[in-house]
Design a protein that fits this description.
It comes from Bombilactobacillus mellifer. Keywords: Aminoacyl-tRNA synthetase, ATP-binding, Cytoplasm, Ligase, Nucleotide-binding, Protein biosynthesis. One of its GO terms (cellular component) is cytosol. There is one protein chain. The chain is of the alpha+beta class. It folds into three domains: 268 residues, BirA Bifunctional Protein, domain 2 (2-Layer Sandwich); 133 residues, YbaK/aminoacyl-tRNA synthetase-associated domain (YbaK protein, Alpha-Beta Complex); 97 residues, Rossmann fold (3-Layer(aba) Sandwich), CATH 3.40.50.800. The chain is built from 15 helices and 31 strands. Strands 3, 7, 8, 9, 10, 11, 12, 21 and 24 form a nine-stranded mixed beta sheet that branches. Strand 18 and strand 19 form a beta hairpin. Helix 1 packs across helix 12 and helix 2 runs antiparallel to helix 6. The relative contact order is 0.14. The model has no long low-confidence stretch (mean pLDDT 95).
Length: 570
């Protein structure tokens, strides 16, 4: 392909609104252009990379007998009303009406659609298991689209769905998909972690995330420095030291003027923050919930939502709600003398804590010597994990300590179970002739997000350094002087020779200064640059790998053999 014929609108300056390295480089390299906030056009170079990624995905899906299909992007609202997600999905859902005032949405994901498509077809256990997948654009009305392709309103996704007659089939599909995703991300040359994830709005009872390590990542990955344990911060657990054994003292109130914070009350009463039982007021599905947690810890709202099986996100109570729903005052809340409507949740870090301190629901007043088991009659089962782990704590597998890093979610696999099949009445007859709900799994890869994650990890100050299998063009041939007939002729011979050997080739045949051509070649990031210059009459070429600083000169006759040798180090 001649570079003069392809559309590559490069930029010399870094766009002022581009924060992420991948966003900057793909804009400067002419890979993408913004059409609207969170909505991008994929230009020719990006399309070639996307096709390479999609080809890897298709090859790995074929290995596990997953079948490709394509569902519509515009979906009838009643399907999502049946599942309940039309109301609960939130403001991220693009909603629209047709000329007959019927409700439609732009699909952010396709669990409902695929369940609808199979519910009258997979009606016998003999027709399962089955795995279907698609690669298409998805739509989510993000409040704050940012970082280019990492968080957009329109994005490309591979979404797959398994349909099983029993748990063993679901487990098998889940495990196969996990291995396929591992193969895909390995082939994309990514540094990533497989972590325990939150199923969130998707539902189901088990999920794993694939997260690419990157400073710009919006997720926090928690991992052990001595084992394979890894989890999203929302799901991470740790082992904390048990509370020290003490002699329980009598419960009593104490005046604590001007002490609305953990630090101020701890200093006033001369105790450590660990002895303060912090009270956090929430409204969950319109009901008041008081969370008790150790003073040096914070509530993990995802864990809290899962513990309570909440249908909507948990919300911190306002000062007005603290007064009206909890009959308390902000800064001095506690678990005593609350209305019966208030549900109390105690974090497991408080188990066995003697002589703690809590608010007394009156300004400038606290309870001392609180023992939750004694004073609130809590049993072991009443203590649950709703705490956010902290770096350095013991890994839950007792191997090593927890470390934190940032990551980009690039894939997520879920065991949905019967969450959608029961709601949408997708049933089958089992071996005994009884009707059962189809057991489902859901498996997603952010294809366009993967594009950004790869660039984040494979770049330098000069531009992108594409992995071999993903590069838009594997070899970039640069003609120094396009008016020199020897150089033009040799470049044409080199292009033909490389293409015959199976390489994809971009030839810079533009009338630009050599410095501009070299800078743009580095920016675009093809793995190999071949320069055709002053020694063209002698059939001498210069080869340089994008990930190395040195170059070598070779004769045209030795080009292919030299390439094979050099690429062993790429």
């Amino acid at each position: 392909m001649k570079q003069s014929q392809i559309f590559i609108p490069t930029l010399k300056e870094i766009p002022s609104d581009a924060e992420a390295k991948s966003h900057q480089l793909m804009l400067r390299g002419g890979f993408i252009r913004q059409v609207s906030a969170g909505i991008y056009a994929y230009l020719p170079l990006a399309v070639r990379v996307l096709h390479n990624i999609e080809q890897i995905v298709r090859e790995e899906m074929e290995q596990i007998d997953a079948i490709e299909m394509l569902a519509p992007a515009i979906l009838p609202g009643e399907l999502w009303q049946e599942s309940g997600r039309y109301a609960t999905y939130g403001d991220n859902l693009f909603k629209l009406k047709d000329r007959h005032e019927r409700n439609f949405i732009l699909g952010p994901t396709h669990e409902e659609t695929l369940t609808y498509l199979i519910r009258d077809q997979l009606n016998s256990y003999k027709k399962m298991p089955k795995i279907l997948y698609q690669i298409q654009a998805k739509y989510r009305d993000e409040d704050r689209p940012r970082y280019g392709l990492l968080r957009g309103r329109e994005f490309i996704m591979k979404d797959g769905y398994s349909f099983s007659a029993n748990q063993a089939q679901l487990d098998d599909a889940f495990n196969k998909m996990e291995q396929a995703y591992t193969n895909i991300f390995n082939r994309c040359a990514l540094d990533y972690r497989v972590i325990l994830g939150d199923s969130g709005d998707m539902g189901g009872n088990a999920s794993k995330e694939f997260s690419a390590v990157a400073e710009i990542g919006e997720d926090t990955i928690v991992y052990s420095d001595s084992s394979d344990y890894a989890a999203n911060l929302e799901m991470a657990q740790s082992i904390i030291q048990p509370n020290p054994q003490e002699t329980a003292q009598p419960l009593q109130t104490v005046a604590t003027p001007h002490t609305p914070t953990v630090e101020s009350v701890a200093a006033f009463l001369k105790v450590t923050p660990k002895q303060v039982i912090k009270s956090r007021a929430y409204v969950v599905d319109e009901q008041p919930v008081l969370v008790l947690i150790r003073g040096d810890s914070e509530v993990n709202e995802t864990k809290l939502k899962n513990v309570l099986n909440a249908q909507q996100d948990v919300q911190m109570a306002t000062d007005e709600q603290v007064e009206s729903m909890f009959h308390s005052v902000a800064g001095f809340m506690g678990p005593f003398d609350l209305p019966e409507t208030v549900k109390i949740v105690a974090d497991s870090s408080l188990k066995g804590l003697c002589n703690g301190v809590t608010g007394a629901n009156q300004k400038d007043l606290h309870w001392q010597n609180v023992n939750l088991e004694r004073d609130l009659h809590l049993s072991d089962q009443d203590f649950v994990d709703v705490r956010t782990v902290q770096p350095g704590e013991l890994s839950p597998d007792h191997q090593g300590s927890l470390q934190f890093t940032r990551g980009i979610e690039i894939g997520h696999i879920f065991k949905l179970g019967t969450r959608y099949s029961e709601t949408l009445k997708a049933t089958f007859l089992d071996e005994n002739g009884r009707q059962q709900p189809v057991i489902m799994g859901s498996y997603g890869i952010g294809i366009s997000r993967l594009l950004s994650a790869i660039v984040e990890q494979h770049c330098d100050d000069a531009g992108i350094i594409w992995p071999w299998q993903l590069a838009p063009y594997q070899v970039h041939v640069v003609i120094i002087n396009t008016k020199d007939e020897d150089q033009v002729q040799l470049a044409s011979e080199v292009e033909a020779s490389l293409q015959n050997a199976g390489f994809s080739v971009l030839v810079d045949d533009r009338s630009e200064r050599p410095g501009v051509k070299f800078a743009e070649a580095d920016l675009i990031g093809s793995p190999v640059r071949i320069t055709v210059g002053k020694k063209a009459s002698d059939k001498i070429l210069e080869i340089k790998l994008r990930n190395q600083t040195d170059s070598v000169e070779v004769n045209e006759n030795d080009l292919i053999d030299s390439m094979k040798i050099l690429l062993k180090n790429y």
